[in-house]
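Thread: NAP complex, take 2
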Amino acid sequence: MKRALVTGITGQDGPYLARLLLAKGYKVFGTYRRVSTPNFWRLQQLGIANKITLIPADLTDMSSLLEAVSISDPHEIYNLAAQSYVGSSFDQPLLTTDIDASGSTRFLEIIRHLNKNIKFYQASTSELYGAFTSQMQDENSPMIPNSPYAAAKLHSYNMARIYRNSYGLFTCNGILFNHESPLRGLEFVTRKITNSVARIKLGLQKDLKLGNLKAKRDWGFAPEYCYAMYKMMQHKHPDDYVIATGETHSVGEFAQLAFETVGLNWRDYVISDKKLHRPLDVHQLCGNHNKAQRILGWKPKVTFKELVKLMVETDLKLWQKHLAGEPFPWDAPNHSSEMDIVARNVTKDANREARAFKVKMKLF
Ligand code: NAP
Ligand code: F7E
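Output below.
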């Protein structure tokens, strides 16, 4: 049975990828961080919370990563964990660098010392293109980061490439353009809009404050993008791929369509707030996924219109259920005793322990 280790299992992409890997017959391990309120609700939404073995680990903590790898003994590592919010990277540039830049290097070092056969997927991003505002971006476009987040991710992109070329590791960079879903975090602009549209429609909110309405993004559907991650890791040769729809729309267009879905005019509700503008933004992104289509046979299916409708309708249902007395998924009790959480330092496999110890000795 193939084993996969997925970091960032509690985020948007982690649960979709885990669901796919489980369907493909993998044993799935996921890393999570200890937080004051457990956040396994996405795994529970997809009905997979008790099918995954959870390992506590933090990308800034080398020993926890080492242990996660020795416990799971994976064939494939999907490194999805990140401080992924571009806005916060301006507030916490050092933390973002530690997680998003050094985190992947910690894994690459572990693989290099422990088992060079482990395949490694790095969650790279369209934010790498930053200030390069051509009509479309592909794998050969210049990368000119415009945020601490993107700069840190560029470091990881390069390290994955360097370890592939210098040590022969199987590493892939998925250069994923924005991808969204009903599991998207509420602070990202798409979900902020769809959640607010639902609340405004139900009379729970008056208006919606947004920042840069002119920024353009290439928005796709998250589960399809997770399938692309899996496809890259199954290909004979490791490589880097742009995953995108090839269509771009402004934040204003997204808002307009979202309000139209519930029969409202966005201009009556949206307020542009200068405080929500970033110190430096990425103005326009539109990805060319031809390489992924040609080599992996991957192409997007869900359209921009379908995506907006799906997200608005899901948020509307959530709030309607809430008004009828049901708790939100994230309010539901989510520390189920049925969840398989590995207690660190109590692995029974003596070989893994010995190997982990040997590697620790080499690294520290
Ligand atoms: P997300 O929803 O923000 O999830 C991020 C995950 O990383 C969460 O599980 C989070 O844990 C975890 N994490 C944060 N800091 C960590 C740390 N120090 N140690 C261990 N785990 C940590 O992000 P996503 O949308 O699923 O994206 C997945 C990956 O793809 C990220 O690397 C992101 O940067 C990248 N990416 C995303 C997009 C996109 O449009 N979604 C596009 C391109 C690339 P908590 O739940 O505890 O916070
Ligand atoms: O912003 C503008 C904002 O925060 C999109 C992450 O997954 O995708 C994501 O990064 C645009 C920006 O996503 C608001 O200025 C306007 O131009 O939804 P976002 P992002 O920054 O594109 C990439 C590919 C990643 O890799 C990241 O991890 O929308 N915008 N008004 C706003 N953005 C937010 N969040 N909130 C606003 O009110």
